[in-house]
Design goal:
Order of helices and strands of chain C: HHHEE
Oligomer: heterotrimer
Structural class of chain C: mainly alpha
Chains: A alpha+beta, B alpha/beta, C mainly alpha
CATH architecture of one domain in chain B: Alpha-Beta Complex
Number of helices of chain C: 3
Shape of chain C: flat
Bound molecules: magnesium ion, zinc ion
Largest sheet of chain C: 2 strands, antiparallel
Order of helices and strands of chain B: HHHEHEHEHEHEEHEHEHHHHEHHEEH
Distance between the termini of chain B: 26 Å
CATH class of one domain in chain B: Alpha Beta
Strand content of chain B: 5-15%
Helix content of chain C: 25-40%
Strand order of the largest sheet of chain B: 4-6-5-10-11-9-7-8
Distance between the termini of chain C: 36 Å
Strand order of the largest sheet of chain C: 1-2
Chain lengths: 497, 503, 95
């Protein structure tokens, strides 16, 4: 891990990059922010459009309370100030997929104010990124430019879906930090349940504001690269845009404050042609809506409804369960993984009667080792795991009571994945039970010792490494089913003579 | 058939809503007869250009349903009553244009809440009434479908009717002309800065703008959202009460709708003003006020005293800033509300084979009239970068002060009595300067900015025989107080004049 | 704050109103007249005064999150000047 700041080495010296991200996250809600039309992804064009969404004359917005609730819960999860009074403003501009001719958004009085998000960028020290604000706004429709030679087609299904725009402070200093920020935010939103974080379906996309400066100098002019829709692309957009700006500046040019697009094929940014004209959004409070007032009880209820969040969960895993910070981070990165792990652990505690502190470590090792390896092979997330947390607990309980050794447990798990049968059933059917009976093990040891008197002499003469040879021979003689601890113990006694 | 008798038909179109209701229940005539009589009157009055679209089938269908319901004894409160509907209300399956070319041919697949309520109460629709384009105007000269001609004509010194055309007021000028000309006993209007009250005053009828939020704005083409209110226009105060009651009520589809019970306003009409304090706002005594207007106002004060009220002097110190504040707020909201008319989803599209922006610009240039464009320009300017605080925000602060002025006045009075407009009806072209036209709303705009209920009642005739109206303004939600004061004034004024038929 | 021809042109562009030749010049004078008149608002001392937020005291109600609308593509598209395959169609936009 390096604490050295990320810099771009130009021909005239080093450059520091300054990044702020505006993430648009679609609020998890059945209906739209101001209408009762559905929000599901992938419907036929204009089938999820109400007359309100199509901005028919005389149509009026009515606020979806669930979107308010999710915005407040998200704000609380970001440790942010919740504004008890907020307002919806109109942002006026013309575009084919903006039916009203304005977007209902919150400029002057957002629902959530300043907060922060802790990130762990790869290869860099952990960092706290400031959150400037979170506000609610409407999504626009979708324009299809390539379906017809002379026309653009407009689908309003997305028009009016609720978005949370989460604006960071310009605290991000490297592509890795930008990536870590988006990952951490996505994880947090999924924990809270306020956004599904599905970047492929556009549920989350980022506007990337980038500028460069000499280390420690004042902020440079920034550009905004719109709608970048994956963590990888966010990092690439930061890098490409920063390098472009450095090239421009080093060639004696100046940066133009403009809106750009990210080209994922070339991994570069380019200016948006349609947004050449200067914008003047003429914001003013939407006269169709009154101020949004939040009661103390409402905010308290929102807070009470929050699950344990990743940062708290991670430190609990380390402090209360004794896991390593690395394992804790891996297990809590996604809420589904943490939930799965906790379900497994709880069931394991129930089955074995042993304390969680004793079971957490082997359970964590098994999840991040065995299970993740299988998931990687089968190509699914944990929600597609071929075994349930309870099934896994049954398996690990058999290890804990020494019915199975580690290597036997591996075989049993493979069989579980293959057949879908339970661990106990496989152990019974295949006779994979571990042998701890000292009689059988002693007999095997006696046979091995008798056949290797030369090696016994060498061992006793100080060649300790040969102990492993005797263990291996004994295990083979036991067809891999002997309890390794018992084998160790009995071998030591026997070899001691 | 009896209803073909011309006199009987005239008698039917002379009826008030209350008289229609009673006559229908007494089976003195049928709803079908009533509808036929009004349809005939509408057809005969085409020179007034009061309707953009006539919908006789709608009226007849409602009448048939009403006759059946009456026979079963389960008729709604407006069963069989044929109404005119201002073309700002979206009507399902019937073209709705807001008086603009940009919406020509637009047929809403939905019904506004207010018209839905009226139809559910048993009313029928005679047609869509002409109006100033997007309700922007005080004379109906801005309609894209031609000016509405007032049924009123001035009387020359020799007693003969002048040929000079007069405006019916605006923006609900089709409504005022139709009601005054006996084409319908009641019509819907909308009032943003005086658009119900001023045309009512110009045509000798009654009209009330209720408290902001009483009538749902859902399905009413928006002009200025924080000011727009629907209301009834009828020939007398009782009919205003009846129609307003049917139009009002909480609507969950309008976030600014008031969740308050709708009182029985007709029952509140006693004409007894004992204990009522009537305020006279000092600042409304403008320098150079028309002496005929001043005389009518004085008469009004005498009438309310006769009815038992006390008259008190009050001050509304920010009155002079109401019009300038209005001409910031209303155009600003309008510039945004009218952005949706872009040629993409409905209405006019002018395509010149160019870009999307070229299509927008050509469509809006061709679709909007000059006054609409002027207000969009003002509204866009006052909201543009760097000007928001100085114009819009300042205007909304002034609006707070204006509302406070009224709140303070309510400490010493219960209703306010003022003239409705500074003059009687004028002729088209008389106020070519937009500012001169805007000043017409000087008495109606302050109460609009404060969202207060206010009505105009016909009170007097000028020397040339043109109607003048008195305005009653009330506390928030006190339509009952406003209507009752109006009722007392109406009784005392005994206004019986009607336009002499020349069409 | 007097407006000039360039401002009128810019505002018209923002509002997507094409001005016919000769239409902008008279608008300059007209808008200046109106603006001069509305600028008297600057005289009013509004220190400490909140801009009006609700015309009549009222609270914003929230709707429950339920799908109660949509599924009316035919109605949504019925008045469209141009539509194809369920989409609204507009002159081609280049991003
Ligand atoms: Mg942005
Ligand atoms: Zn946004």
């Amino acid at each position: 891990m390096s604490d050295a700041p990320f810099t771009i080495r130009g021909t005239t010296g080093d450059w520091e990059i300054v990044v702020g991200l505006e993430v648009h996250a679609q609020v998890t809600a059945k209906s739209k922010l101001f209408s009762g039309a559905a929000t599901a992804f992938g419907a036929a064009p204009n089938t999820q459009v109400s007359l309100v969404d199509a901005a028919m004359p005389g149509m009026l917005p009515v606020l979806n309370g669930e979107c308010v609730r999710q915005a407040v819960r998200t704000g609380l999860a970001l440790d942010a100030e919740i504004h008890r009074i907020s307002r919806f403003d109109r942002k006026n501009y013309f575009y084919a997929d903006l039916p009203q001719g304005y977007q209902i958004s919150q400029l002057y009085h957002p629902i959530v104010g300043e907060g922060h998000l802790d990130i762990e960028p790869e290869g860099e020290a952990p960092k706290r990124v400031g959150i400037e604000r979170l506000h609610l706004e409407q999504d626009a429709g979708k324009s299809v430019h390539d379906a017809h030679p002379a026309m653009t087609f407009v689908d309003l299904n997305r028009s009016g879906c609720a978005l949370m725009e989460i604006v960071s402070k310009p605290d991000i200093r490297s592509p890795a930090q930008a990536g870590a920020y988006v990952r951490a935010l996505r994880s947090l939103l999924r924990y809270v349940g306020s956004c599904d974080g599905n970047m492929e379906e556009g549920s989350m996309r980022a506007d990337v504001n980038v500028s460069v400066r000499r280390p420690g100098a004042a902020f440079g002019t920034r550009t905004e690269t719109k709608n970048v829709n994956s963590v990888r692309f966010v990092m690439a957009a930061v890098e490409a845009e920063a390098r472009r700006q450095v090239d421009v500046l080093e060639a004696g040019g100046t940066i133009v404050q403009e809106t750009r697009l990210f080209d994922p094929d070339r991994m570069t940014t380019r200016p948006m042609r349609s947004k050449a004209a200067a914008h003047d959004y003429r914001y003013f409070p939407d006269p169709d809506l009154l101020p949004v007032e939040l009661s103390e009880t409402f905010v308290a209820d929102c807070a009470a409804s929050l699950p344990e969040l990743p940062v708290a969960k991670r430190s609990r895993y380390v402090e209360a369960l004794g896991l390593t910070p690395y394992d804790a981070a891996v297990l809590t990165a996604e809420r589904e993984t943490a939930d799965w792990f906790e379900a497994l652990l709880a069931d394991l505690v129930r089955r074995t009667g042993k304390p969680a502190t004793e079971l957490a470590k082997p359970a964590s090792n098994w999840v991040t080792g065995e299970l993740f390896a299988v998931l990687k092979r089968t190509g699914g997330g944990i929600e597609a795991s071929p075994v349930s947390p309870e099934g896994a607990a049954e398996l690990l309980a058999l290890v804990a009571d020494r019915t199975l050794s580690g290597s036997l447990a591996k075989q049993v798990f493979e069989a579980m994945v293959e057949t879908g049968d339970s661990a106990a059933a496989i152990v019974d059917a295949r006779g994979l039970r571990q042998v701890s009976d000292t009689g059988a093990i002693d007999a095997a040891i006696a046979g091995i010792l008798a056949a290797n008197t030369d090696k016994i002499a060498e061992y006793r003469g100080g060649k300790d490494k040969l102990f492993g040879f005797f263990v291996g021979q004994t295990m083979r003689a036991m067809a891999g089913k002997a309890d390794p601890a018992v084998v160790n113990d009995r071998l030591k006694t026997a070899l001691a003579g | 058939m009896e209803w073909r008798d011309a006199n009987r038909m005239t008698a039917l179109t002379d009826l008030t809503l209350a008289a229609m209701r009673d006559g229908l229940r007494a089976r003195s005539f049928s709803a079908a007869e009533l509808a036929q009589a009004h349809i005939a009157a509408v057809e005969a009055a085409r020179p007034l250009n009061a309707f953009i679209v006539e919908t006789p089938d709608h009226a007849l269908k409602a009448a048939a349903a009403a006759d059946a319901a009456l026979a079963r004894g389960e008729a709604g409160p407006l069963a069989g009553v044929p109404l005119g509907i201002k073309d700002l209300f979206a009507t399902e399956g019937v073209q709705t244009t807001a008086g603009s070319k940009i919406l020509e041919g637009f047929v809403p697949p939905y019904e506004s809440t207010v018209t839905a309520k009226l139809f559910a109460a048993g009313a029928g629709m005679l047609g869509k009434l002409n109006m100033d384009q997007f309700a922007m105007g005080s004379s109906n000269e801005t309609s894209a479908f031609g000016e509405v001609v007032s049924p009123w004509r001035a009387r020359q010194p020799d007693g003969a009717l002048s040929n000079r055309v007069l405006v019916p007021g605006g923006s609900s000028g089709g409504s005022s002309a139709a009601v005054a000309a006996r084409l319908c006993a009641g019509a819907t209007g909308t009032d943003t800065g005086g658009s119900i009250r001023q045309p009512a005053a110009f045509t000798g009828i009654a009209g009330i703008k209720p408290t902001y939020g009483r009538c749902s704005r859902w399905g009413v083409v928006a002009f200025a959202s924080s000011l727009d209110q629907a209301g009834p226009m009828t020939r007398d105060v009782r009919d205003c009460a009846i129609l307003l009651q049917a139009m009002s009520g909480f609507d969950p589809k309008d976030a600014t709708s008031l969740d308050a019970p709708v009182p029985d306003w007709e029952a509140a009409l006693t004409g007894d003003l004992r204990g009522v304090r009537v305020g006279v706002p000092r600042e409304y005594r403008l320098d150079g006020i028309d002496p005929e207007i001043a005389a009518m106002w004085d008469a009004g004060l005498a009438w309310v005293k006769d009815a038992g009220a006390t008259v008190v002097d009050v001050s509304l110190p920010h009155t002079k800033y109401a019009l300038p504040a209005y001409y910031i707020v209303a155009p600003a909201e309008a510039s945004s509300n009218l952005a949706r008319y872009d040629g993409v989803r409905y209405g006019l599209r002018v395509n010149e084979g160019g870009s999307l922006d070229a299509m927008y610009e050509a469509t809006r240039a061709a679709g909007f009239g000059p006054e609409v464009k002027r207000r969009i320009m003002i509204g866009t300017y006052v909201l543009s970068a760097g000007f928001y605080d100085a114009y819009y925000r300042q205007a909304q602060k002034v609006r707070t002060l204006i509302a406070r002025d009224f709140a303070r006045a309510w400490e010493s009075c219960d209703v306010l009595l003022t003239p409705t407009a500074p003059s009687a009806a004028f002729s088209p072209g008389d106020k070519a300067d937009p500012l001169a036209m805007y000043l017409n709303d000087v008495f109606t705009v302050p109460s609009s900015l404060a969202g207060l209920p206010a009505m105009s009642v016909p009170a007097a005739l000028t020397a040339t025989g043109l109607p003048l109206g008195l305005q009653v303004i009330g506390r928030p939600l006190d339509e009952a107080g406003v209507l009752n004061a109006g009722f007392a004034l109406e009784r005392a004024a005994g206004f019986a004049a009607r336009p002499e038929r020349w069409w | 704050m007097a407006v000039d021809l360039a401002t009128v042109t810019r505002i018209a562009k923002l509002a997507r109103l094409r001005l016919a030749p000769g239409e902008a010049e008279p608008l300059v004078a007209e808008l200046n007249g109106i603006l001069r008149w509305i600028e008297q608002l600057g005289e009013v001392d509004t220190a400490g005064v909140e801009p009006m937020a609700a015309v009549i005291p009222n609270h914003l109600r929230w709707r429950p999150d339920a799908v109660t609308d949509g599924g009316v593509a035919a109605a949504v598209l019925a008045n469209a000047p141009a539509s194809e395959a369920g989409f609204f169609a507009v002159p081609k936009v280049i991003e």
